[in-house]
Design goal:
This protein has helices at residues 46-63, 99-105, 134-139, 145-167, 216-219, 225-236, 243-248; strands at residues 6-9, 13-17, 23-28, 31-34, 39-42, 70-73, 78-82, 85-86, 89-96, 112-122, 131-132, 171-185, 188-194, 202-206. The chain has two domains: 6-84 and 225-236, Phosphorylase Kinase, domain 1, CATH 3.30.200; 87-206, D-amino Acid Aminotransferase, Chain A, domain 1 (2-Layer Sandwich). 30% of the residues lie in helices and 32% in strands. Strands 8, 9, 10, 11, 12, 13 and 14 form a seven-stranded antiparallel sheet that branches. The chain has a five-stranded antiparallel sheet with strand order 1-2-3-7-6. Bound molecules: thymidine-5'-diphosphate. Thymidine-5'-diphosphate (TYD) binds next to strand 9, helix 2, strand 12 and strand 14.
Amino acid sequence: MTRRRRIYEGKAKVLFEGPEPGTLVQYFKDDASAFNNQKRGIITGKGVLNNRISEYLMTRLGDIGVPTHFMRRLNMREQLVREVEIIPIEVVVHNIAAATLSKRFGIPEGTQLPRSIIEYYYKSDELGDPMVSEEHITAFGWAMPQDLDDIMALSLRINDYLSGLFLGIGLKLVDFKLEFGRLWENDEMRIVLADEISPDNCRLWDVKTNEKLDKDRFREDLGRVEEAYQEVARRLGILPEGGPVDVATPIREPGPR
Ligand code: TYD
């Protein structure tokens, strides 16, 4: 078994050096964290499901012309991605009021917002990911105004597309978080969608019952956490062969080391 160099280990994923220059292997763990790492746990099979869900959504977005870092899924828990320079900003899109947005502005949870609202957070664990404005982002040099224009346009396109996709399987896309990176090709820089899109960073509510089918089940100790991730995969038509049993089985493939 070849030993790969570990580039970075985050809360839910590990990045390894890829087989070719300019590529990385993204390994999805079952670890879950919330509230700036104050709450931690394991959601069995989450890594397998998020690998599939993110593969599916990134592929669909690629099909409509959204540039992404995704290349291909390698196995149950790993995908090959392009190495990008991550822009240290979390882009959050809100469609329906929930969680902190509801609290901050006193808007009841579940209220449809007058229009989609984009927020930016500076990626810094020590600082607790403070919310920032476009002014901070350009003044501190995290992104150029042109990059931000691209990021905003891409985020709104992704939101429109994913909102429709999820509505088609009976889910409301309440809010979600995106990350972008810079990809250089022949001296030309492009902003591409990076990281992952999964129930770890989306709020997804059942259209009829408003049941939460995302990481809030873990954050709020609502139970049936694994089942929620499985249900999203099932509705997308991508539950791994063998279904939940397969997913729950400990993985014997090369893992993080
Ligand atoms: P948001 O409402 O901004 O934060 P909170 O969960 O504290 O109320 O989150 C909106 C969506 O973005 C939600 O689905 C979680 C996701 N998100 C992340 O995945 N990581 C983050 O660091 C942030 C701020 C949000």
